[in-house]
Amino acid sequence: MTVLSSLRALVDEARIRVTEDGLTVRAVDSANVAMDDLELEAAAFESFEASPGTLGLNLDRLADPVRLASKDDLVQLFLDPESGKLIVVVDGLRYSMACIDSKTVRAEPTPPEFDLPAAVTVDRDALQRGVKAADLVSDHVRLRMEAGADALVIEAEGDTDAVTLELDGDDIEVLAAGDASTLFSLDYCKKLVRTIPARTPVTLDLGEDFPLILSYELADGDGTITRMLAPRIET
Amino acid sequence: MTVLSSLRALVDEARIRVTEDGLTVRAVDSANVAMDDLELEAAAFESFEASPGTLGLNLDRLADPVRLASKDDLVQLFLDPESGKLIVVVDGLRYSMACIDSKTVRAEPTPPEFDLPAAVTVDRDALQRGVKAADLVSDHVRLRMEAGADALVIEAEGDTDAVTLELDGDDIEVLAAGDASTLFSLDYCKKLVRTIPARTPVTLDLGEDFPLILSYELADGDGTITRMLAPRIET
Amino acid sequence: MTVLSSLRALVDEARIRVTEDGLTVRAVDSANVAMDDLELEAAAFESFEASPGTLGLNLDRLADPVRLASKDDLVQLFLDPESGKLIVVVDGLRYSMACIDSKTVRAEPTPPEFDLPAAVTVDRDALQRGVKAADLVSDHVRLRMEAGADALVIEAEGDTDAVTLELDGDDIEVLAAGDASTLFSLDYCKKLVRTIPARTPVTLDLGEDFPLILSYELADGDGTITRMLAPRIET
């Protein structure tokens, strides 16, 4: 369910690639600002039996039957090869859902490769706090690190008011202490951060006016989500 | 309070018949699709002293002062014979409310008599689950039983998706295992099921394209609600 | 935070007078119907260091960073003499906020002096109950006391329905048992009562068609709020 809500923050429809090792979903939002890359290993499932292929799915519609499950209910997914429908079974309830021709779903983007100078791991709740405060004064938020300084600074400047949150000490783990400073759209930041489960350690890779790479592991370590957010360039 | 909210799902105004043995309220919704029949024995009240008669009441307005009562507050109702007003007293608060001329309230319907082939008792929460799932794909829901099969099937079919919930085993108690299959409007089903208290055993009487008779006892067994819902005939 | 929400019920902007002994805020709503008078002694603050002066503040904007504080967080306020900005610091988060030229904020009213014949102390929750009940039947509420009778009566009369709540005995402490009866606008009463913390003893001073003076102490007794509400004269 958590995985679903992360993806739904970005896109309505997604292509799901099924291999013998697990699932991969790669989705980009319609404005090309944010990209999500989800890998779920077969071990993340109670049992996993799949013939390789690609599936187009409306994520909103998939969320409907999944919401009917209690926390401990097993959610079973089958692809009926005859009807081409996805069957979702939750505690006696059987929901049959039409798939979308995966060719009509937006093509998967190729993730760009960067070599970013700064990297830091921080708790999602600290990020959330900075993003919420920034939202009080502006539409943008700047993430900033300095070579040699063990701190991540989240700051926003409005017309009359300004906000600064400096995270340091036990709040962060600096992985690479390079110079970095980039402005991002708060709308996107809010969506990304909100859909990360509370108290999850999140790794940020940052540069100077470069995209942000944000990554975290799913609950039991059987999968990873990597999210990329394009910078907002000041003009 | 529970009794009030059940009735209010259907109608705004109702005629209340008072006899020495208790109260009877019978109400039909303005579209003639659903009918409610409530019987409250005198024993359901802390004390009951009434001269027989008929009272017209706006149920929405009656709910207002009743909502001001805490869970354990005694709600006292008096009919002031002089002013013709209903006096509601709740912990020091005195609310005087005009009654409606019972002749202007919609006449009480005569409940039709059926002999339905199938009957089953099921928990209200299981019904709720089926109705909610059906609501994801359609505006209608079918309730189905088969002669000889110990199961109640709740199903709905949309344009591309479909939902089936099969209740059997410990979830139900089949009272009469005849053939039955009828389609109902989900809007009405949702209202009826939502206003039944959680975890109440509910008895359904079903036929082939016949009205549904749904009945359950009030908390302490001092009253019964019988609700009838007209079928939605496919044309 | 509680103090802020009380003031915000009335006004958006306020002049805050700072002296060596504490803060005083006096605000009147734009319709001149209600007035608030807040005194916070220096002892109400963890530490208080101030140079006397007057500050114009947008209370809505001040509430934003204060909301980011957890219950036990210390909220620090500094006035930066150079930039003229108010700096709010909450657990590592630094929020700098422009003040308003106090000359552009509505002038402080002079509180009128009355000698009211009736006074009673009553729990805020009992007031709340009476106001909510009155709201079911009317737009106005009457507060009434009688010389020699140990009771406060809250009553409202609508077109067909009426509500009376009589508070006496242990529910009230009569300080002056004179004759008093005044009608007030329910909209204002609801706002005033809603923003008083639950279970606070509130003192009411009442007359015959005179303003209501409502006063209560802040949690630890280091400050007082006095609120005045103009009567609604029947015409």
From TrEMBL, chains A, B, C:
Family annotation (SUPFAM superfamilies): DNA clamp (SSF55979)
Molecular-function annotations in GO: DNA binding; DNA polymerase processivity factor activity
Keywords: DNA replication, DNA-binding, Plasmid
Subunit structure: Homotrimer. The subunits circularize to form a toroid; DNA passes through its center. Replication factor C (RFC) is required to load the toroid on the DNA.
Any one of the GO BP annotations: leading strand elongation
Role description: Sliding clamp subunit that acts as a moving platform for DNA processing. Responsible for tethering the catalytic subunit of DNA polymerase and other proteins to DNA during high-speed replication.
Residue ranges of domain Proliferating cell nuclear antigen PCNA N-terminal in the record: 3-90
Organism this protein belongs to: Haloplanus rubicundus
InterPro entries, A to Z: DNA_clamp_sf (IPR046938), Pr_cel_nuc_antig (IPR000730), Pr_cel_nuc_antig_N (IPR022648)
Family: Belongs to the PCNA family.
Name listed for the protein in its UniProt record: DNA polymerase sliding clamp
